[in-house]
Write a structure and sequence with these properties.
This protein is mainly alpha-helical. The protein has ten helices and no strands. Helices cover 60% and strands 0% of the residues.
């Protein structure tokens, strides 16, 4: 008599990992309750015991990607701590390029996702940023990492790919853009990312209020 394999129990984690794998293969437009159910071999209605709707799946995909980040380890300076975090996020996004539009359009919504923001805000506020400035600093760094990663790694469909023909521009009217065409062959997006990130940290460091010295106790 042939043994039947025991089906793995349905769970939120399994649903989200399946949805992420689906996005990696086919893109965000492939995600639906019905399609994820098909991937799992169950009816779509079964998913509602673990996720509320498609929006919850999208929030969970963002969470699943962030779960691949290494644990944040404090470095000798706040800049170094967040620098490591920025590179780790970029590397993780690079592994899931089709998820990138999700990071540019949806805020962190689950406790597991928000925990990453909480940690980063703690680093910034400990460095001396006010609560408001810490939020602003986090937002600009996060937006830069996601935005630059989109321009670097987001894949376009063949019928959407139409690179600009800078080489056809008039040399007299567009000398800088024509020079850019000659430089494009040597362009290194990772060097560009490093340049932008370091410039951002220089600006953020300069915006920090000066540290107040603690008053000395009067001599006895």
């Amino acid at each position: 008599m042939k043994k039947t394999g025991k089906r793995e129990a349905l769970s939120r984690t399994r649903i989200l990992q399946t949805a992420l794998a689906l996005v990696d293969r086919e893109g965000l437009e492939a995600v639906s309750m019905r399609r994820v159910g098909e991937e799992l071999g169950v009816e779509a209605m079964s998913l509602y015991n673990h996720v509320a709707n498609k929006a919850a799946i999208l929030d969970g995909i963002l969470e699943a990607v962030l779960a691949e980040l290494p644990v944040m380890e404090p470095a000798s300076t706040w800049q170094e701590t967040l620098r490591h975090r920025a590179y780790a996020l970029r590397s993780t996004l690079r592994a899931h390029p089709k998820v990138l539009p999700l990071f540019s359009t949806r805020p962190a919504a689950t406790p597991a996702s928000i925990a990453h923001i909480e940690q980063a805000l703690g680093v910034l506020m400990e460095a001396g940023f006010s609560q408001r400035d810490a939020v602003s600093a986090f937002q600009v760094v996060f937006a830069f990492v996601v935005g630059h990663s989109m321009t670097s790694y987001l894949q376009t469909r063949p019928d959407e790919d139409a690179p600009p023909a800078y080489e056809r521009l008039s040399e007299a009217d567009f000398p800088r853009m024509r020079a850019l065409t000659r430089l494009e062959e040597r362009r290194d997006v990772e060097e560009e990312f490093q340049f932008g990130l370091e410039a951002m940290f220089i600006g953020l460091t300069a915006s920090l209020p000066p540290k107040q010295e603690k008053p000395r106790s009067p001599a006895p």
